[in-house]
Amino acid sequence: MAKRKHHYHPLAVKPHTNVILSILVGLFALFCFLPILLIYIGSFTAEKAIKINGFSFFPAKWSVSAYQYLFKDGGQILQSYWVSISLTVFGTVLSLLIMTLYAYAISRKDFALRRQLTFFAYFTMLFNGGMVAAYIVNTTVFGLRDSYWVLLIPTLCSAYNIIVLRTFFTSLGTESLVEAAKIDGASELRIYARIILPISKPALATIGLFTAIAYFSKWFEVMLYIENNKLYTIQYLLQRVMKNLEYLRSNPEFAMSEGGVELLENLPGESMRMALTVLAMTPVLAFYPFFQKYFVKGLTLGSVKG
Amino acid sequence: MIQLSPRRPSSHRMKVRWKDNISLFLMTVPGIIVFICFSYMPLYGLLLAFKNFVPRLGIWGSPWVGSLNFQFMFKNATFWLSLRNTLLYNAAFLVTGIICPMLLAIGLNELLSKKLARTLQTFVIMPHFVSYVVVSVIVFALCSADNGMIAHFLDSMGSPRIAFYSETKYWPWILNIVHIWKSTGYSSIIYMGALTGISDEYYEAAVIDGATKWQQTRYITIPFLIPMTVILAILRVGGMFSSNFDLFYQVPLNSGQLYPVTNTIDVFVYNMLRTSNNVSLSSAAGFFQSLCGFILVVTVNWIIRKIDPDLAMF
User: DSSP state, A6?
Assistant: First the structure.
């Protein structure tokens, strides 16, 4: 950031221009934020108030019954949450491990296959078989229909992230450090784990965050490959409920639970949709501000180079 | 791109040591396996575009049909519609995806209070972090004919409600607004980076010449951003044939009445595969999309290399 002192600096905008700019940018921030706030408020609105006044920022009556209903028989929701969270954790750790190992190897100038393996990764960004080909291969060759692994494995390796990580590792300038460690007899794996990873925390945080979000947001693969509702992710559950509110009602566990029939008649459907949405988006929204400085810096550095 | 430290005249420094190279190679093996299985093997599935797929016979065993699938595809009206929608939406996103983030970045950058700027930035990038399933719920809460906020606002104005999910004319607008909403804040980060790269000297000189802030923006800031913008735009053109499936399938809730304006190639490929179970047509469209994408990306890279070799991808 260029150093600019308040008010006196000749390069800064005039105070009244600053007020106008603040209002304009503030309005855009509201445009970004209010729709999300509407979902949170909707989830705490009494069903009757929604039926009469529609969704509103100022509901006539507040209520937590949507959440009570969701958790009264939360079997499916907890199960889906578990699938999403375990996918996010395993996926992110495994993915970071595979990608950093690959990226570190191709960042080393004394690695003979550096060029070939860089192109090998890069080519997957240029040309891909598309959805149908992937679907046929995954289901017929690997037999991955209706399996947890089809959600986890195919997206472990992103060529784009590998290229970003490689550029980062190259920019560290650790050649002499690596050289010294090798003279001391350290193995390549040890150098990677003890020298390279510890100084790469900002890059790991950024790529890790984006990988985690990608895993947490999975729904398309579930729609394509999964029949078993034990393997539904929270996003896909939400998608089902969006398409068809009946899905929650037709869930046998729900209907057969205590007082099920009565429960179904008073089901606060609209606010439940919103409550489920809140459950599906809050984990990410709670995390990203902590990573903001990392990815802002990462994206910014990338452009200054040019 | 990256400055190497001046090379010392030591001979062992860059020497390839085979023992180390084997360790390094082993490090790449997990990645190689994933790439082979899930990126390279599906390329083999591209053959389907030239075959009449019979699941019992597998990909290789199914009979060849030459270009028949493509002949059917080019006669399919829905395909042409999807192609048109893909190109038109991408063209619109290209324009709004440049103008909006640039304006936002300039605005954020000029704010006197850096603390306020950072807080506002947290809010403007928030939409980037909600999934498209969530976006579809948000659009539903606003546009639903029964309980939507807009419907009740129209009631209070005494106007009739609008059935958004069955009227095509509103969706080009809705999808464009959703795209602006979701991507502007995040894209502006890149422009912010470029802005901090402009030396203060230019502005100091301009101030001495009596330039107003508006003139400084018009004649210094924006011209400085143009080279990067051109590169970003060209890169975008490389993705002209692909579309965000989530946006075009999920946000309109896959409403059949909206297909004329929401079907893109990706949605067409999916619907052909899962709804019509027409593997031939679906894989032909997928092949067409991959090929056009590949040609565009290679061309675009060639153009960028002419402009600035440092920014070329390969």
Answer: T
CB contact under 8 A, A284 and B130: yes
| Tens digit of each residue's pLDDT (9 = 90 or more) over A227-265 | 998 999 999 999 888 777 656 555 555 555 555 555 555
CB contact (8 A) between residue B58 and residue A182: no
Which A residues, 65 through 94, put their C-beta within 8 Å of a C-beta on chain B?
none
- Token pair listed for A163: 């290229």
Ranges of each domain in chain A? 74-306
Handedness of CA A64, A66, A68, A70 (dihedral sign): negative
- Cβ burial, residue A7 (10 Å; 0-12/13-18/19+): exposed
Residues B42, A130: C-beta atoms closer than 8 Å: yes
Residues 150-189 in A contacting B (C-alpha not used; CB under 8 Å): 153-157, 159, 162, 167, 170-171, 173, 175-176, 179, 182, 187-189
Q: How many CB atoms lie within 10 A of CB A189?
A: 13
Q: Helix crossing, A269-304 with B114-124: angle to 10°?
A: 130
Contact criterion met (CB < 8 Å) for A129 and B21: no
Q: How many residues does chain B have?
A: 314
Listed as ranges, residues in chain B with pLDDT below 50 are: 1-12
φ, ψ of residue A45 to 5 degrees: the values are: -95, 140
With H, G, I as helix, E, B as strand and everything else as coil, classify residue B278. coil
Task: Encode pLDDT of B92-107 as tens digits.
Answer: 999 999 999 999 999 9
Probe site for chain A from B19, B131, B176 (most A CB atoms < 10 A) = B131
In chain B, residues with a C-beta closer than 8 Å to the C-beta of A236 are 133
Other C-beta atoms within 10 Å of B163: how many? 13
Each domain of chain B, given as residue ranges in start order, spans 68-311
Residues of A with CB below 8 A from B41's CB? 137, 141
Largest CA distance in chain A: 76
Q: Which fold has domain B68-311?
A: MetI-like fold (1.10.3720)
**Burial of A296: CB neighbours in 10 Å, binned 0-12, 13-18, 19+:** middle
Q: Which superfamily, per CATH, for A74-306?
A: MetI-like (1.10.3720.10)
Are the CB atoms for B182 and A281 separated by under 8 Å? no
Q: Per-residue DSSP letters for B281-304?
A: HHHHHHHHHHHHHHHHHHHHHHHH
